[in-house]
Amino acid sequence: MGDKLVIELNGGRYALDTALVTGIVEVERIPFLPGQTSFVGGIISLRGEPVAVITLKKALGISESTEAGPKKVIVIKEKNKLLGIDIGGSNVSFLWEEELKKMPVNSEQDRYTDGVIDPEGKKIKLINWAALMVEAARILSANGI
């Protein structure tokens, strides 16, 4: 199952495979892409490469609050594709593979999650990063970006 990066969003907890994470960057703002009404929120530059950024709260249907201050963007890479995941000012922590081996995965799924683990009564939804990446690419392509 691999190590997980755990993200806390509005009282919910979500996990992402650490093997995908190329970095977590802090930005003051994310330049907005004109015409975007979906969860694709903008674009940042990482080491000179453009990275489309999605807003995780929007993708998961979580109400957004207007947070002041810097935002954290988790950058994931799959093959040669980069995607930024805006988590606002949310806290992150880790769950290690050894801990996860003891936890059953509930197959409860929705559009962007692949299941749920439940350490000590604190449900953590597993993010379906591939579905997020496909949908972000579809949205960007449809807008000619």
Give the SSE layout.
Blueprint: E1 4-9, E2 12-17, E3 21-27, E4 40-46, E5 49-55, H1 56-60, E6 71-78, E7 81-88, E8 92-95, H2 97-100, E9 105-106, E10 113-117, E11 124-127, H3 129-142
Parallel strand pairs: 2-11, 5-7
Antiparallel strand pairs: 1-2, 1-8, 3-6, 4-5, 6-7, 9-10, 10-11
* Poorly predicted runs: none
What is the CATH class name? Mainly Beta
Distance between the termini: 34 Å
Q: If classified by CATH, what would the architecture be?
A: Beta Barrel
By CATH, the superfamily comes out as CheA-289, Domain 4
Kindly list the characteristics that best describe this protein.
145 residues, 16% helix, alpha+beta, OB fold (Dihydrolipoamide Acetyltransferase, E2P), 44% strand, 5-stranded mixed β-sheet, 6-stranded mixed β-sheet, globular
What's this model, at a glance?
This protein is α+β, with helices and mostly antiparallel strands and 145 residues long.
Structure, described:
Helix content is 16%, strand content 44%. It is α+β, with helices and mostly antiparallel strands. It has one domain (4-142): OB fold (Dihydrolipoamide Acetyltransferase, E2P) (Beta Barrel), CATH 2.40.50.180. It has a six-stranded mixed β-sheet with strand order 8-1-2-11-10-9. Strand 4 (40-46) and strand 5 form a beta hairpin. It is globular and about 45 Å long. The model has no long low-confidence stretch (mean pLDDT 87).
